[in-house]
Amino acid sequence: MSKKNSGLGLDTVGDLSNFLDPGVGSDGKPLMLDIDAIDPDPEQPRKQDNPGFSEESIKELADTIKARGVKMPISVRENPEQAGRYIINHGERRWRGSKVAGKKQIPAFIDNDYSDDDQVIENIQRNDLTAREIAVHIGRKLAAGVTKTQIAKTLGKSPAFVTQHAALLDLPDCIADAFNKGLIRDVTVVNELVTAYKQDPDEVQKLLEENEGEDITRSAVKVFREFLDDKEANKRDPLTIDAFNGRADGEEG
């Protein structure tokens, strides 16, 4: 009597390895890739001056990796121009730390369906991007014809978030200089200063010069805005008639 097949026909499938996700090992675990076969993404939204890439920060991470290894695999995609090489999707800090730690391999998942939007979304949620890095990404998308509404939907943020960050790409010189130096990190502070600049550019210039080398905080800008409002309120045309004495300011004395 012939052997009866199972209802699913699994006895005829044979080797299942061809059906596995190529981005993982045959046991479902991450692959161990040679560190030297991996390159950082040249379009990585985090730039070299990001605090997470500082020498001190990477050294601290390297010490942890020496002691405990890399617990969270990085994500890479195959380099379409160089067979056998990979580009980092996410996890460049772990890759840098592993190199400093003297590691030869690093656990990784291969994800070829990974976009720059995914990189920004992941870093935003982890608060790993500076406001300017987010602004640069938004500016790149706007230049490509993507609307602010579409960008907001993709990033999972409000349209106001996109508008605020897009404004960082067109700042008055003195504010842009302070922002690029890292003296202003808060988007709200930047926008408050831009509003103040429209009201009194000379006073804003003076404020930034007097506080050069120091962080500009929300509380400091709030006090400054109140100062400008008071200054504006105290400005009166010398020909304005005083309602109480019937005379113009210029006639006093």
Report, as a whole number of angstroms, the end-to-end distance. Answer: 125 Å
What is the average of the pLDDT values? Answer: 77
Category by helix and strand content: alpha/beta
H-E string: EEHEEHEHHHHHHHH
**Share of residues in strands:** 5-15%
Please report the number of helical segments.
Answer: 10
Please state how the strands of the largest beta sheet are arranged side by side. Answer: 1-5-3-4-2
Number of strands: 5
Which sheet architecture does the biggest sheet show? Answer: 5 strands, mixed
Backbone shape: elongated
Q: Would you identify the regions where 5 or more consecutive residues have pLDDT less than 50? A: 1-22
Q: How does this model look, in words?
A:
The protein has 253 residues and is of the alpha/beta class. Helix content is 43%, strand content 9%. It has ten helices and five strands. It has helices at 55-68, 92-100, 116-125, 131-143, 148-155, 159-166, 173-180, 187-199, 201-210, 218-233; strands at 31-34, 38-39, 74-78, 86-90, 105-110. Strands 1-5-3-4-2 form a five-stranded mixed sheet. A hairpin with a 7-residue loop joins strand 3 (74-78) and strand 4 (86-90). Helix 1 crosses helix 2, helix 5 packs across helix 6 (159-166) and helix 8 (187-199) packs across helix 9. The radius of gyration is 28 Å and the shape is elongated.
